[in-house]
């Protein structure tokens, strides 16, 4: 049996995806007053979900978060489509998701450590 | 990888918004300056922001200041023959600064600064949580 199963790989990927998304949102917020700037996002949860459905650790490990530019939302007069309120909501969402994934990963590692110590604390 | 980059991206936003506040403060302070070092009336300055190129990959590298440009709009002309800087017809050339517009821009820059602070704090908290996994 593998020490790190599909769940651990998935959690690691989700953590990396949340970090990338945080960076992209920080970039959107930093450019809130840049004329012509188009916001981007990282819709990585869907690709992870598809990879997880296959149950193949290699596919989960290969799932890469993608940065996608958002050209659909309404533009301001200066060609910028960053909505600060929406970005702050996404920021909170990403932070909470990251916290949840980090917590799960920490519990998994603690469990693994417990097993390696043969149940001794 | 990502989280330290996120801190840098937010830091670039903080620097850009603070520069905007500095320039706005300069515009407000000189809203009535009829002559500068070159003898000309003060001209409103504007910060031109630009998306910073990413160091690697397609992710934004934050924001950078492309230029601090003079507003090309014409200066105000006011009839005040007793003013030392009045011309032969008695008109004084005043800066093209609109204090109300500057105040609005100042509030916008200040709010954007706060948003960058929040994004930076979030990145820092997330980085600390990730580092907690090592303990």
Automatic annotation (TrEMBL), chain A:
It comes from Gaiella occulta. It holds the Pfam family Flg_bb_rod. It is found in: Bacterial flagellum basal body. This is Flagellar basal body rod protein FlgB. Structural component of flagellum, the bacterial motility apparatus. Part of the rod structure of flagellar basal body. One of its GO terms (biological process) is bacterial-type flagellum-dependent swarming motility. GO terms for cellular component: bacterial-type flagellum basal body, rod. Keywords: Bacterial flagellum, Cell projection, Cilium, Flagellum. It comes from the Bacteria. Belongs to the flagella basal body rod proteins family.
UniProtKB/TrEMBL annotation, chain B:
The basal body constitutes a major portion of the flagellar organelle and consists of four rings (L,P,S, and M) mounted on a central rod. The rod consists of about 26 subunits of FlgG in the distal portion, and FlgB, FlgC and FlgF are thought to build up the proximal portion of the rod with about 6 subunits each. It comes from the Bacteria. It is found in: Bacterial flagellum basal body. GO terms for cellular component: bacterial-type flagellum basal body, rod. Keywords: Bacterial flagellum, Cell projection, Cilium, Flagellum. Residues 63-94 are annotated as: Disordered. Transmembrane segments: none annotated. This is Flagellar basal-body rod protein FlgC. PANTHER family: FLAGELLAR BASAL-BODY ROD PROTEIN FLGC, FLAGELLAR PROTEIN. Pfam families: Flg_bb_rod, Flg_bbr_C. NCBIfam families: FlgC. Residues 7-37 form the Flagellar basal body rod protein N-terminal domain. Belongs to the flagella basal body rod proteins family. Residues 73-86 have a biased composition (Basic and acidic residues). InterPro entries: Flag_bb_rod_N, Flg_bb/hook_C_dom, FlgC. The keyword Secreted does not apply. Residues 89-133 form the Flagellar basal-body/hook protein C-terminal domain. GO terms for biological process: bacterial-type flagellum-dependent swarming motility.
């Amino acid at each position: 049996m593998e020490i790190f199963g599909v769940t651990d790989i998935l959690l690691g990927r989700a953590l990396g995806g949340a970090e990338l998304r945080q960076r992209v949102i920080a970039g959107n917020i930093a450019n809130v007053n840049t004329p012509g700037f188009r916001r981007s996002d990282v819709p990585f949860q869907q690709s992870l979900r598809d990879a997880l459905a296959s149950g193949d650790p290699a596919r989960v490990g290969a799932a890469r978060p993608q940065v996608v530019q958002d050209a659909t939302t309404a533009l301001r007069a200066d060609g910028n489509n960053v909505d600060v309120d929406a970005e702050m909501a996404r920021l909170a969402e990403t932070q909470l998701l990251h916290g949840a994934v980090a917590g799960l990963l920490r519990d998994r590692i603690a469990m693994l450590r417990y097993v390696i110590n043969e149940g001794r604390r | 990888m990502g989280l330290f980059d996120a801190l840098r991206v937010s830091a670039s936003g903080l620097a850009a918004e603070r520069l905007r506040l500095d320039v706005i403060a300069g515009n407000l302070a000189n809203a009535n300056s009829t002559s500068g070092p070159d003898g000309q009336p003060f001209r409103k300055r504007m910060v031109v922001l630009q998306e910073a190129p990413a160091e690697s990959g397609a992710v934004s590298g934050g924001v950078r200041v492309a230029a601090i440009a003079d507003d090309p709009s014409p200066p105000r002309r006011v009839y005040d023959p007793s003013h030392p800087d009045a011309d032969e017809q008695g008109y004084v050339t005043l800066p093209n600064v609109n204090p109300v517009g500057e105040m609005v821009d100042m509030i916008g820059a200040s709010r954007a600064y706060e948003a960058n602070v929040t994004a930076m704090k979030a990145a820092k908290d997330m980085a600390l949580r990730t580092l907690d996994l090592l303990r």
